[in-house]
Amino acid sequence: MNPRSFLMLNWRDPANPLAGGAERVTLKHMAELTRRGHKVVWFANAFGGAEQEAEIDGIKIVRGGRPGTSIFHAFYCNRKYGPFDLVIDQHHGIPWFAQWWSRTRCVAYIHEVLGPIWESFYRWPTSLIGQIQEKLIHQFYCDVLFWTVSESTRLQLIQEGVVDVRVWPNGTDTKPLSELPVKCLVEPLRLVVLSRLAPNKRVSDAIRVLALLNNSGCSAELTVVGSGWERALLDRLAESLGQAGMVTFKEHLDDKDKNIELQNAHILLHTSVREGWGLNVIEANAMGTPAVVYPVDGLVDSTIHGVTGLVCEEETPDSLALEVMNLVADPEKYHMLRQNAWGRSHEFLWEKVLPNTCNWLENLASGKI
Fold first, then answer.
1. pLDDT band at 92, cuts 50/70/90?
2. What distance lies between CA 238 and its chain's CA centroid?
């Protein structure tokens, strides 16, 4: 295929201190396009100490403006470094409105519909305003092709008026174990959470699950892998519930140590308000650890209930704790879930995921779709 040019619009780039999973996934796709010989420019907000231009994995990074002004800088970036064959307008609550100013093909890229996540970070009426504007934006974008990562998000977008949504799942850098070692459910039960310590992740619910288990006679320990501004609050909660000695926080682990924690755990708990996909579920599965999760968008995609893990009936610590206790009482089922979760994790290696998605992006850029 002839070389094409792509412009990625994202509020953050991989070097931004606030960059997260969305940026890591985006980087994988853009780096693959670059490897194939295409030109890729990634425009993002400026941040303290950042250069205006840089290069990461062959991708030209251009930075400018802050929230509220960076759209104008993106417009000038498009004029300066274009023309582009395809502009990828990545949404994080607020889009770039690129279909009105880019003068080329445009695809909207979204990991999750925020919906209730607005309520985790903002009080009413700000949260309500955020939810309303998000729905209005999806209606404004109704005729734009969308790219998302899960069937749950696709259905949510269609419900809000979007016409055409394509699902291309995320990959993972976590290589599945070459063999699945034996892991017996013995007490104390080793639970793990892998998450940013932010309100929308509801790590506090996982600590409450731990308390429910220990108070019911099921001895358990919880390791929380991640960092964030809720750390002090979570420390106080664990202490108030009498679980301070049962909760261990481990921040800033490298991939090797993170995988060790996932492999050592019996069960991953995931209590998020909503996810685009739930990548850490697949990471745990690759280490032979099934997940027990809340019944929310994204997590019901990354976890197949009764096959690779368990999805509890309600978004409550009581419901999650009940699923865990039922699983502890059924070691054969636990063994089956481990086997299936580990086997399925092989499907999400980047070398299997990237070709299909990048072929699709190339066809979009060339006008074949």
1. confident
2. 26
Q: Are β-strands 53-56 and 59-63 bridged in parallel, bridged antiparallel, or unpaired?
A: antiparallel
Question: Is the model's pLDDT at 1 over the cut of 80?
Answer: no
Say if residues 298 and 152 touch (Cβ distance below 8 Å).
yes
Is the torsion defined by CA of 180, 184, 188, 189 positive or negative? positive
Q: Taking a C-beta distance cutoff of 8 angstroms, is the pair 282, 302 a contact?
A: yes
Nearest in space to 322 (alpha carbons), one of 304, 331, 333, 310:
310
Helix (H) or strand (E) holding 193: strand 189-194
Q: What angle do CA 301, 318, 111 make, to 5 degrees?
A: 25
Asked if residue 274 lies in contact with residue 114, where contact means CB atoms within 8 angstroms, the answer is: yes
Collect all residues with Cβ–Cβ distance below 8 Å to 186 and sequence separation of at least 6: none
pLDDT by residue (tens digit) across 4-15? 999 999 999 999
Give the burial class of 360: count Cβ atoms within 10 A of its Cβ; 0-12 exposed, 13-18 middle, 19 or more buried.
middle
**Rounded to whole angstroms, how far apart are CA atoms 293 and 277?**
12
Give 6's Cβ-side CA count (13 Å radius).
34
Q: In the block, which residue shows the tokens 């929308």?
A: 200
Q: What was the pLDDT predicted at 132?
A: 87
Strand partners of residue 249: 224
170 with 25: CB under 8 angstroms? yes
Q: What is the pTM for the complete model shown?
A: 0.91
Is the separation of the CB atoms in 189 and 218 below 8 Å? yes
306-359 pLDDT tens trace: 999 999 999 999 999 999 999 999 999 999 999 999 999 999 999 999 999 999
| Chain center to CA of 344 | 18
Pairwise pLDDT comparison (78 vs 228), residue with the higher score? 78
Tally of CA atoms within 13 A in the half-sphere of 152 that contains its CB: 20
Q: What are phi and psi of 339, to 5 degrees?
A: -60, -50
